[in-house]
Amino acid sequence: MPIRNLDKIFAPNSVAVIGASSRPLSVGNTVLKNLIDGGFDGGFRGTVYAVNPKHKEIAGVKCFPSVAALPELIDLAIVCTPAATVPGIVCQCGEAGIRGMVILSAGFREVSSQGKTLELETLAAAKQFDGMRIIGPNCLGIIAPHVSLNASFASDAPPKGQVAFISQSGALCTAILDWAIQEKVGFSHFVSVGNMMDVGMADLIDYFAMDHHTKSIILYIESIADAREFMSAARAFTRTKPIIAYKAGRFAASAKAAASHTGAMAGVDSVYEAAFARAGIVRVYDVEDLFDCAELLARQKTPSGPRLAIITNAGGPGVMATDALLERKGVLAELCDSTVEQLNAQLPAAWSHGNPIDVLGDAPPVRFASALEIVLADPNVDGVLVVLSPQAMTDPTAAADAIIEAGKRSHKPVLAAWMGGAKVRDGIERLNEAGLATYSSPEKAVRAFMHLVTYARNREILYETPREVPIEFSLNRAKLRTLFDTILSDSGDILTETASKDLLEAYEIPVTKTLIAHTAKDAVSCADRVGYPVVLKVFSPDITHKTDVGGVELNLATPAKVTEAFDRIVSRAKHHCPDARVDGVTVQPMLVAANGRELIVGAKRDPVFGTVLLVGAGGTNAELFQDRALELPPLSDHLARRMLESLQSWPLLHGYRGRPGVNIDRLVEVLMRLSYLVADYPEIIELDVNPLLATVDDVTALDARIVIDRESVLHPARRYSHLAIRPYPDELSKHVQLKDGTNVLLRPIKPEDEPMWHNLVACCSPESLHLRFRYMFKSMTHEMATRFCFIDYDREIAIVAETEKDGVRTLIGVGQLVADVDHLEAEYAILVTDPWQGIGLGAMLTDYCLEICKRWGIHSVMAEIAPNNDRMIRMFDHRDFVIQRRPGQDVVIAKKSLH
């Protein structure tokens, strides 16, 4: 479905430059000139108009005194006037029916508080006109090479290509453009977003996802305004196409001091890192990498794996490439025996007989080509890097021509590193013109290759089917809410250890029994109850890091030792923190596990991405070692495992040199339960479990601390607004009964439903599948199934009908709703397995999906039906859908207004 009115901006039939100027080098003059010189005016697509009351004509273009005076309805207005005039111009454009605007003018929130007020006035003016879309203000403009549109004040436009570039920096745009023109790298779109008053990153990602010219996106990001929309759009895009991002401002300090270990460890940049990975985005850390990746994205397909073959005419560069590959955890491809035999037949006897493939310094062009053709055919090779060093016998230009010809028929990426200066320049030009990614050094080529390997790995994670973990949340949410409210009423902003553990225990996260002792005598009594040896910890709402003040005493085995420890802990706490309230100590059993591992798990509210989860090496050295992994909730089984596997201490958790590992399944379960806890309670802004003791048998929280946002308590936000990713909507699950008495559970689909989804499809006849999908296929692949089972619950819902017999669960039908990004219209489709047709299941699924549409605020629902699907047509007709039969087309459209 189209993104509302963005075609008016990126594919207009007419353009008006408001503030066009005859003054050379002015913005108004440059934009007008770029539009004309780019071929838009009277050329490729449409018409350009100038608006300026001081002129009759500028650069051969007729000038009009005002927007109202324009002779036709304009698609796109480009505003180049001073900031103070912009709100009025927006009103004029809206009244004239213009719905696409690019505001180049500066002087808004980026300069002063008065500018911020002016920007708010501009936004308010735009909101008066339904459907108006604005890029900017304070931007360089946009370029759409495929429609010859250069609506910017950049000096030149890049060639046509397949990469969309979106940047929050206009200056970087000009640098990228200059490089792209020199290197002959093409782009599908070039967008300087400016202040993103209206159109943001998410809108553009969604728009380019549907653009057939765009095969990948490069982002330059300084900040993200709406994380939920950004994550949703990026995750949808990266399922099929790569996004490369450079994030500026990596070392921005947090605005407030953290009140927990987790808060201290989770910095701003590390949260962006976790968010990008979750969205399938490949992050680069140097602007130079953006150039390298842009070249590879523009010229080559994404590699299917990390196995790289290196062909070189010099040993040293081959070693350099190998070092760079292994340093970045790439794989030096192991050549098949048949490949080695073919190379033996084509290369001199002195060749390297392995990878890197050294074709020797006297290699003529045909030797490069033969080696490349043979290696590309090897199933163990995912990509090939050809490195040329200009030696006395080398012909770099002819070698480039040979490589171009040899690589034409392969679907694997071929990269070139033509090392040197003037001698290789012509060869580089030939490679660039042919569309091969070319680099000045082997290291740059390998780095770009590995960025795309990272994308392939991230995409695999997006498509990975999780195991079903036996976590049944048959918890009474209302009762838990009452418990939580009671805890809040009895606590301050920082919950006590006992209150924090009470909440963990409610979510079935194991905790050590903790008692509070206000006196030494109480401490002894508590120790007698929990059993020796015990641990004493200072009990104070004002002390976060107990160990730092000497507030922890371990392994106390007698009443006398408990008494002495109590006095020492209270004395030290008052000495180190004289203003802190010290209410005594907590007493808990001392857990000793020879092969146990201490971890820290927790959560923190990030100002951009909302709640973020953390796991890492724990104990008193948690911050020192910084061995941690971050992820956005909600967690699935494979996401929790990925967090653990990414830790440097993973070998110790998994089992190392004969020492047993910890209970990984139990640890994964605890992480998942923690993600449910923080998802359910937006009031939690920091949560800290340190240490979490993991052993061979179990996982136990030894200490816990939760920080509450009182503002969220007093003014509750909408459900899950504190999360960047919408959790599973279990509130949409309900039990129904079919006409034959069969009990059915209607619920949203889950990623772990994939095996049952395959069975559902297998139970459908070819005719049923053709009526649903409108094409024939022999079997449902993993990639096809994930399209239906892995969904963004903010954008679409698939309601499955599940039955259970003798403990075996089965899916017997599914109704799918896919909404447009504005949540105005939804497409609906339904599939019921053959054995369950004719007993009202399809009607029941349809009615429930229409009910969900009303909850969503959807305005209209549309379905495409095969003309011979009489049963489905009757069902929609019975529900007051308007049935549209289109002569000559193999589809019937059913549409229903819900307002």
From TrEMBL:
Q: Is ATP-binding included in the keywords of this UniProt record?
A: yes
E.C. numbers: 6.2.1.5
Q: Which residues form the N-acetyltransferase domain?
A: 744-899
Signal sequence coordinates: none
- Could you tell me which InterPro entries the record lists for this protein? Acyl-CoA_Synth/Transferase, Acyl_CoA_acyltransferase, ATP-grasp, ATP_grasp_subdomain_1, CoA-bd, GNAT_dom, Ligase_CoA_dom, NAD(P)-bd_dom_sf
Name the chain's protein. Answer: Succinyl-CoA ligase [ADP-forming] subunit alpha
MF GO annotations: acetate-CoA ligase (ADP-forming) activity; acyltransferase activity, transferring groups other than amino-acyl groups; ATP binding; metal ion binding; succinate-CoA ligase (ADP-forming) activity
- Keyword list, A-Z: ATP-binding, Ligase, Nucleotide-binding
What gene does the UniProt entry assign to this protein? sucD_2
The family annotation for this protein states:
In the N-terminal section; belongs to the acetate CoA ligase alpha subunit family.
Q: Does the keyword Ligase apply?
A: yes
Q: What class of enzyme is it?
A: ligase
Q: Which organism is it from?
A: Rubripirellula amarantea
Q: Name one Pfam family in it.
A: Ligase_CoA_2
* UniProt domain ATP-grasp: residue ranges: 501-537
The organism sits in which domain of life?
A: Bacteria
